[in-house]
Design a protein that fits this description.
Elements (H helix, E strand, L loop, with lengths): L2 H10 L4 H16 L3 H5 L6 H17 L3 H5 L1 E4 L2 E4 L11 H15 L3 E5 L5 H9 L3 E6 L2 H14 L5 E5 L12 E6 L4 E2 L13 H4 E2 L5 H13 E10 L5 H8 L3 E8 L5 E8 L4
Parallel strand pairs: 3-4, 3-6, 4-5, 6-9, 7-8
Antiparallel strand pairs: 1-2, 9-11, 10-11
Helix pairs in contact: 1-2, 1-4, 2-4, 6-7
The protein binds glutamine (GLN).
Length: 277
């Protein structure tokens, strides 16, 4: 048994070759402290380590469990976040939302950010770490908030990313105002068939009514009350949802911009709240 034969277990189970290599690398680093550098130096793994790796690969194959849940962490924008099946695994696409937000925050010296449906806290924590803003992350799930709090400690950003249990705006106080409200809401239309791996993720983080638009509608309706003048509303978008969300935003928001992801899919939308006269 060696790394190649164990990698082959993954590819034989239908996992694409590049993906299999990345996953083996993650498992090796996490469980065996064996890095790419060790590999380049030709360091040999002990039989016991290989056996352990094989067991983890079998767990991956048997349950189709995402490798991030097996190791309990996921890489996002330069940091390792704790993840469990109580939270969504951070996606590469979400980087686009976070990068746009960071640029706006830095460029305008903004301070107060609200992240709705914070989950693992990956968005809130990254913004707090990379800007001077204070981010309030809210979520309906107490289990998710516990993970988010662990991630605050991991990243050493206590007091700059704070969390509160709230069903959307329910526990946002009347006088609270934000420069930016952002969200990567559940946006998969209910009833959509998913890849087996995705079925391990929390359903409430994935699915939305109204053909996927439920949370965009609910957030767009209430966001203007909680935004400062010239405040921004920003969303990650599900596939094919840009036009509908843009139409929902048009009445109360201006300067609306849509940003595509690397696959050319409209992935992020944001705009500024219109001033009331
Ligand atoms: N904010 C978290 C993320 O982007 C969780 C989003 C969600 O659960 N829909 O990963």
């Amino acid at each position: 048994m060696n790394i190649q034969t164990i990698t082959k277990l993954l590819t034989d189970a239908g996992i694409e070759e590049n993906e299999a290599r990345v996953e083996i690398k993650m498992l090796l680093e996490h469980f065996c402290k064996y890095t790419e550098l060790d590999k380049a130096k030709g360091k040999v793994l002990e039989e016991e380590q290989l056996e352990y790796l094989e067991n983890k690969v079998m767990e991956r194959i048997r349950d189709r469990k995402p490798v991030q849940y097996i190791i309990g962490e996921a890489y996002f924008m330069g940091e390792y976040f704790k993840v469990t099946p109580d939270v969504l695994i951070p996606r590469d696409e979400t980087e686009i939302l976070v990068r746009e937000a960071i640029e706006i925050i830095r460029g305008n010296g903004l301070k107060d950010v609200l992240d709705i449906g914070t989950g693992s806290g990956c968005i809130a924590c990254t913004i707090a770490k990379q800007t001077d803003a204070v981010v309030l992350g809210i979520d309906i799930s107490s289990d998710a908030l516990r993970i988010a709090l662990d991630n605050v400690t991991r990243l050493g950003i206590n007091n700059r990313a704070v969390f509160r249990k709230s069903n959307l705006f329910e526990k946002i106080r009347e006088e609270e105002r934000f420069d930016i409200i952002l969200s990567n809401p559940p946006y998969i239309p209910k009833g959509t068939a998913l890849q087996q791996e995705v079925c391990h993720e929390p359903q409430i983080a994935l699915f939305a009514d109204d053909g996927g638009l439920e949370f965009y509608k609910k957030i767009i309706r209430r966001a203007p009350e909680y935004l400062k003048p010239e405040g921004w509303l920003m969303f990650e978008l599900g596939m094919g949802e840009a036009e509908s969300v843009k139409n929902l935003m048009k009445k109360e928001f201006k300067d609306i911009i849509v940003v595509k992801d690397l696959a050319g899919i409209d992935r992020v939308i944001y705009g500024k709240v219109k001033t009331k006269d």
